[in-house]
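Reproducibility note. Readers wishing to regenerate the assembly model reported in the main text can use the exact inputs given here. Chain order matters: entities are listed in the order in which they were concatenated for prediction.
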Amino acid sequence: MATHSLKHALFCAVVTLIIAYPILGLDLEARGTSVVLAGADTATVVSVLAAALVVFVFQLFRHRILGSLGTMPSLNPFANREPMPQDKRQRLETIALVVLVVAALIWPFFVSRGAVDLATLVLIYIMLALGLNVVVGLAGLLDLGYVAFYAVGAYTFALLHQYFGVSFWVALPVGAGLAATFGLLLGFPVLRLRGDYLAIVTLGFGEIIRILLNNMTWLTGGPNGIGGIPDPTVFGMEFGRRVKEEGNVSFHEIFDVAYSGSHKIIVLYLIALVLALFTALVIRRFTKMPVGRSWEALREDEIAARSLGLSRTAVKLSAFTIGAFFAGFAGTVFASKQGFISPESFVFLESAIILAIVVLGGMGSQLGVILAAVAVIILPELAREFSEYRMLIFGAAMVLMMVWRPQGLLPMRRIHIEINKQE
Amino acid sequence: MSMLVLEDVHTHYGKIEALHGVSVEVNKGEIVSLIGANGAGKTTLLMTICGNPRATSGRVILGGRDITRQATASTMRSGLAIVPEGRRIFSGLTVEENLHMGGFFNSKAEIRKSQDYVYELFPRLKERQYQRAGTMSGGEQQMLAIGRALMSKPQMILLDEPSLGLAPLVIRQIFEIVGHLRDEGITVFLVEQNAHQALNLADRGYVLETGRIRLHDTGANLLANPDVRNAYLGG
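Running the prediction on these inputs yields the following structure tokens for the assembly.
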């Protein structure tokens, strides 16, 4: 036992050294025209050695350390509490949600432009994650190409504006509708697939869309992307310094306030907020309707669901279509926010991040997914001081999260529907 | 008056033929048992009735209508219900939600009525109505699976090995309920390995061997048949 853990600890320490030393202890320096390999300063080398030592000691006494951790009182004060009665819980949730929404409406007027801009991005990811939550969390269909529908929404707006001068509000339903159509089209070939096979086909679909956008240069501009996508207007008001489109008026002239660059950003934030709220409410409604229950039934047991007369085709297609619809929504907002889009924005990593949000939040749980979207998008920004290590920290946080709380931040708690109210 | 008729049904899994021309008839209000060894094709026969997989030739007629080529979903909505092998309840949902899934295509008023009926049939389920179905015992889960199938108010119910993995006492209880269903006018097609009890309960029985019907007689006659006794009842 002792020799075994010694061996194991030595092995871990050596692995730490192998990984850490080349990354931290070696530097490439430019000397004139050539590049030379130079050792880093002693402080770095010492800290790498110290880290290896820490790993060694921890692994050597791992059982004892983890054992004593286990006997500590639980870190979560809510761990052993009785679950709240359902009506009380729902009331509390409603109050919490209202407070959150009011706070979200007010706060952009007190913070910096950068913060509001980031919050808009968070809201876009919330829409995406809520949409994917329908497909993955509720219907249990692993979709790795979700970003394709996001791209369809964004490019619909960009192209419609470029060729027909269509505005944001017209493009919004068109983009979402077109994304939903793509969802439906993708649904047909994957109807019979499950699990890994489904994941691979959807992954392929995501790549097909991205590569198409990249190569149809005559239409999409290829890797150069499409620029000059307008910001949303509100009742024909523009928020820029000068009016760009004929027939529109500018906000600061109408209301006779001094022009400020933050108007535009705040308005975009508020629009994204309203759309995210709309997404959350519509999907919440769906989960309480028969179609939502049929998604869950299919996820729980496909054979049982079919034995009850549910059509696999209808259930799967509805999940894909509705999920894709909201990705199209988010895509339109994204195009408007960035003002410029290119296939670069719709790589596989985006699908992975959205999926990570859904899994971290707790599959199927709306509040959990929203929290996770906030955490996943904001954490890397907060960790900017650690510059090149921030992705490392982000990755470590994800691993720890999955080890300690595999069910997600706020696992889905089902609301049971009572038809039979007696007495 | 026949409820379900299978005429010379062949079923394939890919290139392999699992049923080599099976003919079965179930009359209205009867309990008919199908017995057979492992791999004889009992479950395949039931699944063929549901249309998954479809019969490659022959006809399946339910209540006078040819359903051989009909989609599974619409077959399962036309007065037929199945209690699948291994129960397959929705373990993450509560007992009550499981029942509601069974009445998915019915109105709320109908669901309420059939739910009361199921609770009357299985008082045990009412005690556990808000419990997660996966946390119940095997017998209770089997009751739930039967209850869920009854929620759509079927005229005919297919049972695939309801006694699988249950204690003898629970099995007897389940079979009593099945007998009770016949008294209520529901036609029952019962597939079982537990030949003794299945034949005891049944009006008529079929013996399936490697994809073919070997014998077909009343339940009592089959119980007395020396071949059946040797092969399925332990001598």
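We highlight two features of this model. The longest strand of chain A covers residues 26-31. Chain A has two domains: 2-71, 111-233+271-404.
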